[in-house]
């Protein structure tokens, strides 16, 4: 394994002229390179399009950008947008074009990838806590989760993840410390990699716990409604909302587990056992699942939001109206109705969850 630069005394690996990446270039055939390039470019483009759309819809609405829940979604979209840009470029540049540059340049790009994915998980955690509080403390939600507190939490999260992500660039790497280098990432020590794995696993478990607890409460609420044979229209509506919420949360958990488990398992495996070229190739393709997660997040967290869907439809309607000749009375009437509809939209805090607050209070008291 020392041939591949895992020995901390390797001088060529830390050369100022460039990073020794020969042992990390595991895509040998042109077919593999073309496939990985197509996957990254295609998913990166879709991810950029989706997250740009989400951010534009939120920040062009004075009402939405003031809500804490949409600040968390904005943070998630920003992190996923960065992930799509930095990961797609860096991954293709490294594995297809064999570009690494000097150690400082390489660690700067790797830090950007680490930052974007870690911030994405941090935003997911804050979103999970936001919905957890909204479900369990609906009467005090607006008091507990204010815009200033949301901004403070996001600021702390982004500063923390930035510092953690760029520690290798600041000196916590194989060039400056007497540590064993990772077989998956050049210049990254196994100690730093294991610490980052612990951080990511902790974030994932916190997210899964929060959503699992909400899912359990929703299941209890549904059983409560059925047990007491509540036939009123409101009762039936709440049962349907419980089912919708349960499906959404089940999708959230499934996406997290499917996208992150393979990468984390292989990272942990690399800390214990030596890796052959086949496992490294599998890891390269599994890494793209993290980009898949960033591509699915806007659909799961943003576009499933009733308010964002309404805003998206209104934007499409405005674009459609711009293409039509002006001056039609029918179009003017339609515009007035649209404005009236926008003005009377309900000021919900976290969509379906807030609609169930009374039912939850009754069933859980």
From TrEMBL:
Pfam family membership, one: 7tm_1
User: Which superkingdom is the protein from?
Assistant: Eukaryota
Transmembrane region positions? 34-58, 70-92, 104-129, 150-172, 192-216, 244-269, 281-303
Give me the Gene Ontology terms describing cellular component: neuron projection; plasma membrane
Question: Where is this protein primarily located?
Answer: membrane
User: Keyword Nucleotide-binding: yes or no?
Assistant: no
Question: Which InterPro entries is this protein grouped with?
Answer: Cnbnoid_rcpt, GPCR_Rhodpsn, GPCR_Rhodpsn_7TM
Q: Where does the record place it?
A: Cell membrane; Cell projection, Neuron projection
Question: In what way does this protein cross or attach to the membrane?
Answer: Multi-pass membrane protein
| PROSITE patterns registered for this protein in UniProt | G_PROTEIN_RECEP_F1_1, G_PROTEIN_RECEP_F1_2
SUPFAM superfamilies hit by this protein: Family A G protein-coupled receptor-like
Coiled-coil spans in chain: none
Alphabetical UniProt keywords: Cell membrane, Cell projection, G-protein coupled receptor, Glycoprotein, Membrane, Receptor, Transducer, Transmembrane, Transmembrane helix
Family the entry assigns: Belongs to the G-protein coupled receptor 1 family.
The name under which this protein is listed is: G-protein coupled receptors family 1 profile domain-containing protein
